[in-house]
Amino acid sequence: MEKTPLLAVSATPVDIWYEGPHFVVADKPQGLAVHPDTVDTTNALVNSLLQSNRWLAEMETSHAPGVIHRLMAGDRGLVVVAKSDDSVKELRQLYNDYRFLFSYRVRLPKDLMPRTIDSVRVLDHQIYDEVAIWDIDTPLGDTALLRQDWLLDPQADAYFVCYRVAIPLADKLTHVALGERMKLPAIDLYTVPPCSICNGTKALLSYNGFGYVDHTLDNDATIQTMRQLRGDERGIPVIVINNTVSVGFDRHRLKQALGLY
């Protein structure tokens, strides 16, 4: 049976990490809303999911078709969207019963201390310069609610990366992940400010929710330390992850060191 979506279909590519008969899990990029506020808006994740004749639950009646949970536009990571009306009821009930489990890396100013609440389990916490990274598990898939309940500030200067989600369907437990769970690493960068490769390294780390200590090569002591670390190799940035040194930007090597898929 042909269906006509209420929303406009967007040709913007979307990064799908799982798709089965009942739901799809997409990696929502930072800066993109999960669903539009009005039917006239086209730049949202669900607009892109409707491409290629992909069916979503409630697609003829809702501006948030099949959406189970919402990451704020400024956050990034895995979002679960139902594909049929039966599955949306089941998934929303499971979500409302706190049966989902979401894993986040959360970037906060180092002086912002979240409160202790039953719904958030802290797995790890590291400080990098003025930034703190928290690794947490929670049944809450709404990062606006996490800001309100965990940080006590809906406008908190925070960046959430949802990198794993466990979905407990009746027939099986489905795990989807952007990478492995690992202890937050010590990361030191030796960089030159105008270097585009250095900036690209920082961007990859930040986008994936990792912190780093940036040693700008603007004094003799830092330059000498960098030279000792890289030995006979040449190039920048010099990246030190848990005392393992690499020189230059190698995306595959960096993602492997960070456990990213």
Strand and helix map with partners:
Blueprint: E1 15-19, E2 23-28, H1 45-49, E3 76-82, H2 85-96, E4 101-109, E5 121-128, E6 131-138, H3 143-149, E7 159-168, E8 173-177, E9 187-191, H4 196-207, E10 213-216, H5 220-230, E11 238-241, E12 244-247, H6 251-257
Parallel strand pairs: 3-7, 9-10
Antiparallel strand pairs: 1-2, 2-3, 4-6, 4-7, 5-6, 7-8, 9-11, 11-12
Please report the total strand number as a whole number: 12
Corresponding CATH architecture of the largest domain? 2-Layer Sandwich
CATH class of the largest domain: Alpha Beta
Kindly, what is the distance between the CA atoms of the first and last residues, rounded to a whole number of angstroms? 37 Å
Fourth CATH level, the homologous superfamily of the largest domain: Pseudouridine synthase
Topology as a string of helices (H) and strands (E): EEHEHEEEHEEEHEHEEH
Overall geometry: elongated
Report the biggest beta sheet as strand number plus sense, adding barrel if it closes.
8 strands, mixed
Point out poorly predicted stretches: none
Determine the CATH topology of the largest domain: Pseudouridine synthase
Strand content: 25-35%
Structure class: alpha+beta
* Mean pLDDT level: 94
Rg, Å, rounded = 20 Å
Q: Given the structure, what is the number of helices?
A: 6
Q: In percent, how helical is the residue content?
A: 10-25%
Domain count: 2
